[in-house]
């Protein structure tokens, strides 16, 4: 069995594996796709101490760093089920989709999250070419330009307020007849001169010139009228979905499906830890995921030295 089995090969999982391997304990890492969301990212300009890098490059560096140590990397393997140990100090079991079963004294869950997409024509084609999902990451790339934010919940309205301070103009598009964000955020939004709010609107298409975004279309859900907006960026803020479908019943999740963790990364099950975008820790960012992964790795080691194997 492993001492530590990390599930997920993004920034959080890679950091966790490096920290535990450096303690000399037997570490394995299972990843559906090593690199995680970083693989889908182009410019990264907030990876502190590295002013500019690119997703695929950072992902390659993550893997290279993990391979410096004796870590058993099981890439392109999807975990399908977690069976927590029945007794303290017992072995946890992770069952893979291919039927194989891995046992470990501790498990670190770092399966990340995925942005919910609009699924309209142009969205995929112009991803990283004007279609963005993370205002903290990509907001500054649109300095002085016109953008839309899709979604009037808390994250959409927060994004609109954030972007309004950077870009020339923000069009906020909400499907419902009213915004769903907290009143305090809506009040703040209403004070901003360069934000237009459109409600009861269904985004139907992202337009581009083959290279980059040039606009979007939406349908007014009351009148069925079609409208076009000229702009350079579209921030989709209709939900970040944690990859925890496979964990239901195994560890405590919030109503939104995030793994509940405490300040040490401990989940509701002794010996099982969580880190990164898949958890309740706020602000889904690479440096934060790495910090949380490192923390979970140290917590797993701490658990190992304090727990007598059953
Ligand atoms: P992830 O990166 O999501 O990794 C999850 C890992 O778990 C992957 O290896 C995945 O394959 C694996 N996995 C999932 N389910 C299973 C399963 N059942 N079994 C086995 N493996 C599984 N952040 C920044 O700080 N700066 C940026 O500029 C930036 N830009 C971004 C641009 C885009 C387009 C996107 C999508 C995100 C961006 N982010 C950025 C956010 C950042 O990528 C995430 O915060 C970070 O990758 C989270 O790391 P993680 O390890 O928690 O999860």
Automatic annotation (TrEMBL):
Gene Ontology BP, a term: response to reactive oxygen species
UniProt remark on cofactor binding: Binds 1 FAD per subunit.
Binding positions for NAD(+) per the UniProt entry: 146-160
Keywords: Disulfide bond, FAD, Flavoprotein, NAD, NADP, Oxidoreductase, Redox-active center
Domain FAD/NAD(P)-binding: from-to ranges: 2-293
Cystine bridges: 134-137
Cofactors that this protein relies on: FAD
One example GO MF annotation: oxidoreductase activity, acting on a sulfur group of donors, NAD(P) as acceptor
Quaternary state and interactors: Homodimer.
Name of the protein in its database record: Thioredoxin reductase
Annotated organism of origin: Brevundimonas mediterranea
Lineage, highest ranks first: Bacteria, Pseudomonadati, Pseudomonadota, Alphaproteobacteria, Caulobacterales
Shown part of the complete sequence: 212 to 521 of 528
């Amino acid at each position: 069995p492993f001492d530590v089995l990390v599930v997920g090969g993004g920034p959080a999982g890679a950091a966790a594996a490096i920290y535990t391997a450096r303690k000399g304990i037997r570490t394995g890492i299972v990843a559906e796709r090593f690199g995680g969301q970083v693989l889908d990212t182009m410019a990264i300009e907030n990876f502190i101490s590295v002013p500019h890098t690119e997703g695929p490059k950072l992902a390659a560096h993550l893997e290279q760093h993990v391979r410096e140590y004796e870590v058993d990397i099981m890439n392109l393997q999807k975990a399908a089920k977690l069976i927590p140990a029945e007794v303290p100090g017992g072995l946890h079991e992770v069952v893979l989709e291919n039927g194989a079963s891995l046992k470990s004294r501790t498990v670190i869950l770092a399966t990340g999250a995925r942005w919910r997409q609009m699924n309209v024509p142009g969205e995929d084609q112009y991803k990283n070419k004007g279609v963005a999902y993370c205002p903290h990451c990509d907001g500054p790339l649109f300095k002085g330009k016109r953008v839309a934010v899709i979604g009037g919940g808390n994250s959409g309205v927060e994004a609109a307020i954030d972007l309004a301070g950077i870009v020339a103009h923000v069009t906020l598009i909400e499907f419902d007849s009213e915004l769903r964000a907290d009143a305090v955020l809506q009040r703040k939004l209403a004070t901003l001169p360069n934000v237009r709010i459109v409600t009861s609107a269904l985004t139907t298409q992202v337009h581009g010139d083959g290279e980059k975004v040039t606009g979007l279309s939406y349908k007014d859900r009351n009148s069925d009228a079609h409208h076009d907006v000229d702009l350079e960026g579209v921030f989709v803020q209709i939900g970040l979905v944690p990859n925890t479908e496979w964990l239901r019943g195994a560890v405590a999740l919030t109503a939104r499906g995030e793994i509940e963790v405490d300040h040490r990364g401990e989940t509701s099950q002794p010996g099982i830890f969580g880190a990164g975008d898949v958890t309740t820790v706020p602000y889904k960012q690479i440096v934060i995921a790495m910090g949380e992964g490192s923390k979970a790795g140290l917590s797993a080691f701490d658990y190992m030295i304090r727990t007598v194997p059953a």
